[in-house]
């Protein structure tokens, strides 16, 4: 935290632009980015008199929700891989699915030789 943010209570309501500057002093997060995170349900904001506020505590919680899980040693799968491996039907590419569909819709004719 920056020296200025040390004087601010963690539960004090801050305008999103100020909160972004304090929580992300490198400028990598803006008020717009915080609004997007609120829309995704990861940041709690308060709207008072048409102005959006949040707290440094709420940003801390958002950061925990946004944290990317680390891979364990020797395990090379992601949660998406786990979900796919639980499927009972084989995975087929869109191109293979289209070929199979086209093959079914063509009338079978004997070739002239």
Give an overview in words.
The protein is mainly α and 113 residues long. The protein has a domain at 4-66. It has five helices and three strands. It has helices spanning 16-23, 31-39, 56-66, 79-85, 94-105, and strands at residues 14-15, 46-48, 51-54. The chain has a three-stranded antiparallel beta sheet with strand order 1-3-2. The radius of gyration is 26 Å and the shape is elongated. The protein starts with 13 loop residues before the first strand and ends in an 8-residue tail after the last helix. Mean pLDDT is 82; it is low at 82-87.
Any chance you could write out the topology, listing elements then pairs?
Layout: E1 14-15, H1 16-23, H2 31-39, E2 46-48, E3 51-54, H3 56-66, H4 79-85, H5 94-105
Antiparallel strand pairs: 1-3, 2-3
Quick recap of the structure?
With 113 residues, this protein is mainly alpha-helical.
Keywords:
113 residues; mainly alpha; 3-stranded antiparallel sheet; 5 helices; 3 strands; elongated
Task: Provide the residue-averaged pLDDT.
Answer: 82
Helix percent reads 40-55%
What does the overall shape look like? elongated
> Rg, please?
26 Å
Distance between the termini: 81 Å
Count the strands?
Answer: 3
Spatial strand sequence of the major β-sheet: 1-3-2
Low-pLDDT parts are 82-87
Strand content: 5-15%
Number of helices: 5
Spell the H/E element sequence: EHHEEHHH
Which structural class do the helices and strands define? mainly alpha
Described by its quaternary structure, the protein is: single chain
Question: Biggest β-sheet, characterized?
Answer: 3 strands, antiparallel
